Amino acid sequence: MENHIVRVHPSAEDFPRSEHLAWKIAQVAADPVAVPAESADMAVNRIIDNASVAVASVLRRPPSTARNQAMARPMSPGSTVFGVPGTYAPEWAAMANGVAVRELDYHDTFLAAEYSHPGDNIPPVLAVAQRQAAARGLTGEDLIRGIVTGYEIQVDLVKGICLHAHKIDHVAHLGPSVAAGLGALLRLDPETIYQAVGQALHTTTATRQSRKGLISSWKAFAPAFAGKMAVEAVDRAMRGEGAPAPIWEGEDGVIAWLLDGPDAEYTVPLPAPGEGKRAILDTYTKEHSAEYQSQAPIDLAFLLRDRIDDLDKIRSVVLHTSHHTHHVIGTGANDPQKFDPDASRETLDHSVMYIFAVALEDGVWDYSTSYSPERAHRPSTVRLWRKISTVEDPEWTRRYHSSDPAVKAFGARAVVTMEDGTVIEDELAVANAHPLGAHPFDRAQYENKFRTLAEGLVPDKEQDRFLDAARNTASLGPDELDQLTVTFDADTLAKAPAIPDGIL
Question: Which intervals hold domain MmgE/PrpD N-terminal (predicted)?
């Protein structure tokens, strides 16, 4: 890897394009280096993972809304949409599938200076691959190269540039990464990719209010919208249109006015020329449908519940954890909605206090019932929930930001104080499903996650067909990329909510 210093350059300064971060990203995306076998294998895992969580959300309202919008734009050749037959405009298919993947907060994650869900790269890259397969002779190998490149760029940006400190949403790293992934997929020249990266960043930068307070369904739409914008940016760049430049380093650019300001300096690692893209191997998926910082606390709650005789006799629970967990999903956020039984599912998903209470009581976590209104209103849960708080522990924050995989942690230490003064405590650094956890996910676990979430929604024959196609992604020809979707039968799909008409 090569480290690149990124800072603001005044307009009067001679700052050659070859030094722009967007150009360096474009060079990485255009590099024809082979995809490492391990990276290609992990890309297949994540195709399966995305399909798992998309299938589980198809009948929910936000994915139904996005799907209806896509279905208003049939196109042949076009792109598939989870749940329904036919093909549609790629940017709208990317949007629909992106919402379905993101809705349950249940796919992969990477955390460093910034947060991310790199699996958000897959829906737009797959949609464009399907649309362009026949015209460009794209194969499963091309798809994998595009996905691995999208992961690489997003992970590298997340390692180098913090957005949340300035209340900028993490999808500002996703727009450029999707543009780069599409550039690699289509084998575009660096000039075109450079312009697309700049446009994608410019059009996908927004505030973090989508993940603050009373969180709405826009949390699922935000990354999907970024993917859609990136598809459109690449389309414009391919037609010869340009972008603001230098987009990160300009005097009125992103760093100068949205991030750390004119005197800031960032270090962004990127693969050297000819170096294989391996960042996808640094990412990790979720066993539980909850914000990633809740994964280890859920597993920790399962461990602790057997040591607590009577949950009603708990006086307090304090989770000692990282800055991020405390301030985003903990009591440090100062969001009263995180203790509100009437809060949205999206808000409960971002309340580690609620999640820890339910995990302590139930000993299991379910993507649907654990968030149901009935579950959130259970009197014993509300009482326990309001006894739980978080505090930032500098050691957990240090481990969160560590670049050493053996040290990096996203967990907590739980201190449970009983009414009689007895203290019960334990800690867990990483979730069980993490590569360093008690039960790391491998292909078998990804496939089991798909079958579990598809149960009762997708016939076994369709499950088998999809998994067979996914396992063999690298061998798929241009006329076979449309196999990487899952279609519901009409009776099941009819259970989706009715969506009112809009403008489009």
Answer: 19-266
Is the separation of the CB atoms in 203 and 233 below 8 Å?
yes
3-state secondary structure string across 375-416: HHCCHHHHHHHCCEEEEECHHHHHHHHCCCCCCCCCCEEEEE
**Alpha helix segments (H runs only) across 137-270:** 140-160, 171-186, 190-203, 218-238, 254-258
CB neighbour list of residue 95: distance below 8 Å, 6 or more residues apart: 66, 69, 70, 221, 224, 225, 227, 228
Sign of CA pseudo-dihedral 491, 496, 499, 503:
negative
Sequence ranges of the chain with CATH classification 3.30.1330.120:
292-428
CATH number of 292-428: 3.30.1330.120
For residue 497, the 8-state DSSP code is P
Residue type present at position 54: A
Nearest to 178 by CA among 146, 205, 155, 217: 146
Pick the closest to residue 98 from 76, 78, 82 (CA basis). Answer: 82
Residue 272 is encoded by which pair of tokens?
A: 């050297």
Sorting pLDDT into bands at 50, 70 and 90, what band is 404? confident
pTM for the predicted model, two decimal places:
0.92
Place of tokens 């992604």: 473
CA distance 111 to 207: 18
d(CA 33, CA 270): 14
Q: Give the span between the Cα atoms of 350 and 385, in whole angstroms.
A: 13
Give the tokens for residue 125: 């890259």
CATH 3.30.70.1400 fits 2-282, yes or no: no
CB proximity list for 93: less than 8 A, separation 6 or greater: 70, 78, 79, 80, 81, 87, 123, 127, 130
Q: Write the single-letter amino acid at 351.
A: S
**Range list for CATH 1.10.4100.10 in the chain:** 2-282
**pLDDT tens readout for residues 194-223:** 999 999 999 999 998 887 777 788 888 999
